[in-house]
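Dataset card, provenance and construction

Sequences and ligand SMILES were collected as paired inputs. For each pair, a complete structure of the chain with the small molecule in place was predicted and serialized as structure tokens. The example below shows a pair involving adenosine-5'-triphosphate. Curators did not alter the output after generation; any descriptive sentences attached to a record were derived from the structure itself.
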Amino acid sequence: MEVITESAEETKGLGRKIAADLITDYRLRITDYARVFALTGDLGSGKTTFVQGFAEGLGIKTRIISPTFIIVRKYDIPISHQSSVISHFYHIDLYRLETEIETEIRNLGVNDVWSIPGNIVVIEWAEKIKNIIPKTATWVRLKTLGEDERKITIHQSPTTDHLQ
Ligand SMILES: Nc1ncnc2c1ncn2[C@@H]1O[C@H](COP(=O)(O)OP(=O)(O)OP(=O)(O)O)[C@@H](O)[C@H]1O
Ligand SMILES: [Mg+2]
């Protein structure tokens, strides 16, 4: 799927819709594995903006900020949006990790996070750990086309474009 957005609000809206659909999947029990969204795209392409909308779609009221030195942030999904299988939302930002990234990620326990079926996980700069991202992940690439214009490509597996 490919979408062009023309404002940050529109990108948030896309994230919100994808998350809301996920809640529906869980309620229908379509999903029985952790849902991982691997985000790629340059600085300022709108990854965090997408995550802000995504969190809103999960009913999370806390404002999502770009983690600075914190790589992994965990949020509770409110009861109104929960089903028996959903547990938590994790926002992971790999921007600051430069060396031994896969080891760091293992040390942070991320492998456990994406092994728990009810967890919903969004990862910024996912291309840095492309070899260990679960095969079931959805890949979301954001590309800056103009000041307010972004191309957002969503695939069930990474394309060469996603890993650039
Ligand atoms: N169509 C659009 N979609 C998303 N963001 C947009 C759009 N148009 C303008 N923007 C602006 O672009 C910026 C995107 O910043 P954001 O922090 O979301 O990017 P990022 O990809 O997370 O960057 P980083 O690599 O630093 O983490 C915001 O200031 C946002 O308002
Ligand atoms: Mg960001």
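Derived descriptions for this record:
The chain has a mean pLDDT of 90.
Residues 111 and 142 are 25 Å apart (CA to CA).
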